[in-house]
Amino acid sequence: MKQILFAALIVSAFSGCATQDQGKQFTACLEANARNPAFAPIASKIALGGVQEQSLSMLSSKETASDADRVIISKWNDGRKQCYANASTAMQDSMHPRLYGLVAKAESQRQQLISRLYSGAITYGQFAEGRQIIQDLFEQDRLALASAAVDQQAEQRRQVLLMQLQTQLNKPTGNAPMPAPYMMPSPAPAPASTTTNCTTFGNQVNCVSR
């Protein structure tokens, strides 16, 4: 069943979820986490909702996380991880394994990036760039999976049509073939008619046939 629904699951994926309903729930959770007033002090440094909210100033920032920032970053990330954990079971159950693997891989990369920001190893700008790269890679891999799934479905459909055509060509018509028409033999040609003329000379008779 998962093979049959592979393309549909990928195409309908929304923010890494197999269906739009699940995607909306996951996104709603992230947005609610981002609106937490306690995170306001870092709202100008991190796009708390997602990469689509990143500004040029965030991407170009040379600032690293302060001690006060780290406390907030940790709590913000705890909320993100809770959203992901809540959606993870549903995603595993409804997603094709290869697609879920991409989602899990991207989230693991994000966690590594957040850890480096928290430790002061990278700046806010580097963190923003890294988030964008992770998202771009995920989208490319997801589209590649969708394309492969569509190609696979097209080939399967082609094989089905070929089988249907072959069945039609091999199907008996239900009518026996008509025998060849009987031909009367041609009559033998009649022998040509002849005329015999006889002439008498004395005691001799000469006959000539024409």
Report what the structure shows:
The protein is mainly α and 210 residues long. It has one domain (6-166). The chain is 59% helix and 6% strand. It contains 6 helices and 2 strands, in the order ααααααββ. A two-stranded antiparallel ribbon has the order 1-2. α2 (20-34) packs antiparallel against α4. It is rod-shaped. The model is unreliable at 1-18 (pLDDT under 50).
In short:
This protein is mostly helical and 210 residues long. It has six helices and two strands, in the order ααααααββ. The protein has a two-stranded antiparallel sheet.
- Class inferred from helices and paired strands: mainly alpha
* Sheet having the most strands: 2 strands, antiparallel
Characterize the overall form.
rod-shaped
How many domain modules? 1
Low-pLDDT parts are: 1-18
Beta strands, count: 2
Tally the helices: 6
Radius of gyration, CA atoms, in whole angstroms: 45 Å
How much strand?
5-15%
> Which series of helices and strands comes N to C?
HHHHHHEE
Give the topology.
Blueprint: H1 6-11, H2 20-34, H3 56-60, H4 67-94, H5 97-119, H6 124-170, E1 196-201, E2 204-209
Helix pairs in contact: 2-4, 4-5, 5-6
Primary descriptors:
about 210 residues, mainly alpha, two-stranded antiparallel sheet, disordered N terminus
